[in-house]
Specification:
Layout lengths: L1 E2 L5 E2 L9 H12 L3 E2 L3 E9 L3 E8 L5 E8 L7 H16 L8 E6 L5 E6 L4 E2 H6 L7 H20 L2 E2 L8 E7 L2 E6 L6 E2 L11 E2 L1 E2 L6 H4 L6 H17 L9 H10 L5 H4 L6 H9 L11 H15 L6 E2 L21 H9 L4 E7 L5 E7 L3 E2 L17 E2 L4 E9 L5 E7 L5 E2 L4 E7 L4 E10 L5 E7 L10 E2 L5 E7 L1
Helix pairs in contact: 4-6, 4-10, 6-9, 9-10
């Protein structure tokens, strides 16, 4: 944690560095092995800083479940700023109820008056440790998933009036929940800005605290912070996750301020050409010098970045949905006679050009073709058709069908990404995604949904998706005004 003194602002304070290590060692040894509130047995120290320390403990009343306890150093009790920020952390974790933020379980004070927080123990690795394993940039699937979760968790905090102000890879824990699924937990709200605090109201205007490498310009210059401040930090983290390098590498605070004002000179694709070009604009917008030029929320930034990253994770088998229906032709002739005339049979045989293609999707893999056979009815009576003019048709009734696709994106690990959306006709669908076909018509008709794909030897194979014995009783007929949702089908 770094601090800069500034007039009219909060500061992190100061302490005697010469005896700090010894003092922390004494405090560590003094608390290890003790039980707080006859419940929390402290086992080992996980980390320490200038104002407090974090310990691993066991909850003796919950089957020795592991928990984390944060203690304020005894000497920090004399530091008003440190005490206030400790109370802010308690309030921040209490306000936020989101799976992406570490949960607070208990609070209190030890017999000597030192306050403590009991928090959820996150079994996993820090984002920093994952980034170290990929010095040239993380796997895009994993990066997209992690960034999206961070964005959602930050936005939830911002909606509760909490600004983290110290977002960095070390304060983001990654927990494996099942298989290859990662769960993000944002930790350490020790210098969080709490709007309208009830535990520790503050009369100062702004604060200058955080980790320099990830500080937003307004934070570095002791100007008021907002949710956009954390979005900037997330942008810097995302840049590093994707490239293995930070957007700026200054030697001094002043140099960093000048670099931020000028903007990042090296784009992510300059360092990792395989990234989609759209990533540059998204990340650089999040790193804008002016907060107003960034995204409206951390989640909006995460969504935009993940959208670009998802495009790059598609394999060579991209699928384009064409919304322009083609007419191919089939006529269903309704004759007055029970047995069709020679003309009627000829008409049925030669007019297979009136079928609506609902969907043509696929380049390398199976193409999905939905065929809606809607009749262009021709009907005649003995009085309407003279015997010497068998080709005359007295009436033609046109039929229509409306359709659209609902698409659900899926990550390679099988998790649904965002919510389903209505295809526009120019969408690119990726492997593993699912879609449903919604159809309706004001008239009766026959509907067929056919899967067209490659067969052995370079041929083509067709599979009937609708109707089937289990769907609509095997009948292709759809009644007038009947809405059908067919699917979902997986690409």
């Amino acid at each position: 944690m770094a601090g800069v003194n500034n007039q009219n602002s909060e500061t992190v304070g100061s302490y005697d560095a010469t005896g700090a290590a010894a003092a922390r060692a004494r405090e560590r040894d003094a608390v290890i092995g003790i039980t707080i509130k006859d419940r929390y047995l402290i086992e080992e120290q996980l980390g320490t800083g200038g104002f407090g320390a974090v310990y691993l403990a066991r909850d003796l009343k919950l089957l020795s479940k592991r928990v984390v306890i944060k203690l304020l150093h005894e000497k920090s009790l004399q530091n008003e700023w440190a005490v206030r920020k400790f109370k802010h952390e308690i309030e921040a974790l209490t306000r936020i109820d989101h799976p992406g933020v570490v949960g607070v379980l208990d609070t209190g004070s030890m017999t000597d008056g030192v306050p403590f927080i009991v928090m959820q123990y996150v079994e996993g690795a820090s984002l920093r440790s994952l980034m170290k394993r990929a010095p040239a940039g993380m796997d895009l699937h994993q990066a997209a998933d992690i960034i999206h979760q961070i964005g959602c968790a930050l936005t939830a905090a911002h909606e509760k009036g909490i600004i983290h102000r110290d977002l960095k890879p070390e304060n983001i824990m990654i927990r494996s929940v099942s298989g290859d699924d990662d769960q993000v937990k944002i930790i350490d709200f020790g210098i969080a800005k709490v709007k309208d605090s009830q535990l520790a109201p503050s009369t100062v205007v702004v604060a200058t605290a955080g980790t320099i490498d990830y500080m937003a310009p307004e934070q570095l210059n002791a100007r008021p912070v907002s949710g956009s401040t954390d979005t900037y930090s997330l942008g810097a983290i995302a840049y590093e996750m994707l490239t293995g390098r930070r957007p700026f590498n200054p030697e001094t605070h002043f140099q960093l301020a000048e670099m931020q004002r000028a903007g990042a000179r090296i784009k992510p694709t300059d360092l990792r050409p395989a990234l989609p070009k759209g990533v540059d604009g998204v990340v650089l917008q999040a790193l804008s010098y002016n907060p107003e030029a960034r995204y409206s929320s951390a989640r909006a930034f995460a969504d935009a970045l993940c959208e670009e990253l998802m495009e790059s994770t598609l394999t060579g088998s991209r699928r384009v949905v064409d919304s322009k229906a083609e007419t191919i032709a089939m006529t269903h002739v309704v004759a007055a006679q029970s047995v069709p005339s020679v003309h009627a049979r000829h008409q049925l045989k030669t007019s297979k050009r009136n079928t609506v293609v609902l969907l043509a999707a696929g380049l390398l893999l199976a193409a999905i073709v939905a065929l809606a056979v809607w009749p262009r009815l021709s009907f005649k009576t003995a009085g309407d058709q003279p015997a010497n003019n068998p080709a005359k048709t007295t009436a033609v009734v046109s039929r229509s069908i409306d359709y659209y696709l609902m698409v659900q994106k899926y990550l390679p690990n099988g998790k649904a990404y965002q919510g389903p959306f209505k295809a526009t006709g120019n969408d690119i669908l990726g492997d593993g995604w699912r879609f449903s076909v919604h159809t309706s018509s004001p008239q009766d008709g026959l509907l067929y949904l056919v899967n067209e794909g490659p067969a052995a030897g370079g041929g083509i194979t067709y599979n009937l998706l609708f109707p089937t014995p289990k769907i609509n009783g095997g009948s292709a007929r759809v009644a007038a005004g009947q809405d059908r949702d067919l699917g979902p089908y997986q690409l």
